[in-house]
Amino acid sequence: METIEYLKSFNRKERFHLVGQLLGNSEFNLDPNLFRKILDLLKLDTPTYYFSAMDYHLDWIYASLELAHSHSNEPKFRDTACITATQEDVDFLLAFLDDSGNTHIVMIEAKGDTSFTNKQLQSKANRLNAIFGANNEKWANVIPHFLICSPIQPSQLETKNVPSFMLNKKNDGFIWFRLYMPSNQRKVTRCNQDGKSSKDGEYWKVETLRSLKS
Question: Is the pTM of this model over 0.85?
């Protein structure tokens, strides 16, 4: 449990604690059916306990692993190769132990209105490769997983130089599950006087967004 306890200790985003308190779910417990779906995608058994968080920094993941495996919480200078001091994060994080004593760290990236880009996923791949190793060789008894979710399954995403644990077992793509979004959402867009979208436009318009049906 040591790695998970460190992960919990870094989870200081006020949004997490505010939302948890407002919804009466301070531990961010998942819907059991969705949790089972995620575990099925990863071919994992249901754990007795798990930690979950949103907007979780990659720096915090590395720091938790470093502290847990060095068995020391004493302040000291450390190599900053994997620490960037940036806001780069994963949208949702799950961590739990299996019956063999392995710590599973599940990282989820989501897109609703916008789409996944190769640039964004490659940035994540570079960071996770530095943290875990291309084939997860850096930390004993730690098993990382990476999933993406969106209303429509993305295609033609590049997987070159992506760590093996970010891909499905066939290594032919990212592990994906569907994100259900309302079909009557709207967005405000700046435009010119002809209604053409423009970031420098002096006017604005409302556009209706509708998710494509599967």
Answer: yes
